[in-house]
Design brief:
Number of helices: 4
Number of domains: 1
Largest sheet: 6 strands, antiparallel, barrel
Distance between the termini: 37 Å
Number of strands: 6
Shape: globular
Order of helices and strands: HHEEHEHEEE
Helix content: 10-25%
Strand order of the largest sheet: 1-2-3-6-5-4
Oligomer: single chain
Structural class: alpha+beta
CATH class: Mainly Beta
Radius of gyration: 17 Å
């Protein structure tokens, strides 16, 4: 199966397709471009909201500000094949898995380059919102990240 034909991520396939070969600089670039094109074609356009707390000298939070960035993300249900997520105790109702670029450039975010992190909030075009609960994998070639996957928790359970 050619990588461009995949409509959902299969970690085992990505591991064998990308991570069992020797590293070269062009391979890293091509790998990132392939994964990003899958996320764009099969994922959704969403808003990432990053909250920043302002504290006073005694440590009390005085203000929480939010900055919004535009991203692409692929959100999928957690399946029985996601053993790592089950073993971590994160396969609970309201949780899903998500796949992200290793880094979002300013041309996509509208601001600056951005790496998703735990605590970020994702809002889709239907106003469904999730919080990134845990980064479960930073898929790498040698020591350079190709893409990032995470467990996200739906935080608007009434929808």
């Amino acid at each position: 199966m050619a990588l461009g034909q995949i409509t959902t991520f299969d970690n085992a396939y990505l591991d064998s397709a990308y991570f069992d070969t020797e590293y070269d600089t062009n391979f890293l670039t091509r790998s990132r471009e392939d994964v990003q094109s899958i996320i764009i074609e099969n994922g959704i356009f969403a808003t990432l909201i990053r909250q920043t707390e302002t504290t006073e000298t005694m440590g009390d939070v005085t203000d929480i500000s939010e900055t919004e960035y535009q991203i692409f993300v692929s959100i999928q249900d957690i399946t029985k094949k996601d053993r790592q997520i089950h073993e971590m105790g994160l396969a609970v109702p309201g949780n899903s898995k998500a796949f992200f670029f290793h880094e979002y450039p300013a041309v996509i975010t509208g601001e600056t380059s951005l790496i998703v992190q735990v605590g970020d909030i994702i809002r889709d075009l239907d106003s469904k919102t999730w919080r990134i609960e845990q980064i479960i994998a930073e898929r790498k070639i040698e020591s350079l990240e190709v893409f990032r996957s995470a467990v996200i928790k739906k935080i608007d359970l009434d929808q």
